[in-house]
Amino acid sequence: MKKKLKKKDKSQPTSTCKKGIAFKRFDQTPSKYLGKGDPLNLEEEKCQFLCHGKIPDFKFKATERQLDLITSSKKCEIKHDLLPQATWILEKVKEKYGTGEGYLLHTYGQRIDSEQASEVLKGYMVENGVDGMMSVAWSKDLSCSGRMTWVGPCLKANKPDARKYRLMLKDSADNCFLREKGILCIADHEIGTHFIRSYNDGLQPWFSNRLKFGLQKLKSYSLQQTEEGLAALNTVLKARSKYLFYPALLYYTACAVDILRKLDRIDFEVLYSGKVSLEDLPRVRHSARLTSIKLPPFMKDKAAYISHLRKIALLNDIRASPMRSGRGGRRSAKKGTKVRRRSQSVSARRIGKTSDET
């Protein structure tokens, strides 16, 4: 009698260890690392759409009611106030690089596989003193390029040391950061921003009671704007091109613009002290514990970091002045009153002074 072969559980990982850093591989992302809005059948439906033209029928972890609440929240509101800025960036990239692949090749370098990327990540974590503080997992069907996750006691338990972090990365050709420079860029995004701010948050007096300190909720729109805006800016620090192409494409430009416009008013050390939004900074300025926090490698020289951000702002035509209208002109505070545009030659000269090369 033939034995029945057990069906392989795709969510079970294969594991390796590189100098104390655990690397795991999943064919299918475990449910606990999926958000409520993540499709459970992403790869299957993508294949059906691209190969056969079938309209995707996504299955979600969340119920329909939960999805309705998510999509009707403020975070999902469609806004157009920065659409001209995003369009301007996209057109500049198209004009300079021609194709998306041309931009990716110039910005992030040649493609590499996940084994090569793991070696780069290992060096990054050791160099920056975060080795042993998280594991790394590659998954073939992750719905994004990367995601920093943690599991542990609820915040009210006030046991930040009990949290276990894992960096989830997509092991697929779809991941535009699986490139020579790209893997360092996503490391600055996920580890240098999300992990560092989350880790430091556990050292702060507000960790288990944000309400007491008058801070925004962790899932608030304001905090998400600051979190993703900061991460978007840090993603291009090591990139050869400093255009905010992906933030513009995904319309995360709105998150980054506010930070770039307020560079002179932001205390970045306090901003990295925990999960705080720009609005929270005045409230935590005197209570934040700064002596024991970790800072990302690119923040060791604060003056150089801010200088990099200024160059990014200039290259992407982001200034504290009013946003350009859709026609390329500017408007004054009085509705409908046009203000004289800068000549194209002046604009070109100013942009030309800031190269998008590192």
UniProtKB/TrEMBL annotation:
Biased composition (Basic residues) is annotated at: 327-343
- PANTHER family, per the entry: PTHR31817, PTHR31817:SF5
Name this polypeptide is given: Uncharacterized protein
Q: Which GO terms describe its biological process?
A: proteolysis
User: What InterPro entries has UniProt attached to this entry?
Assistant: MATCAP
Which portions of the sequence form the region Disordered? Answer: 323-358
Molecular function via GO: metallopeptidase activity
**Keywords, A to Z?**
Hydrolase, Metalloprotease, Protease
Q: Which cofactors is this protein said to need?
A: Zn(2+)
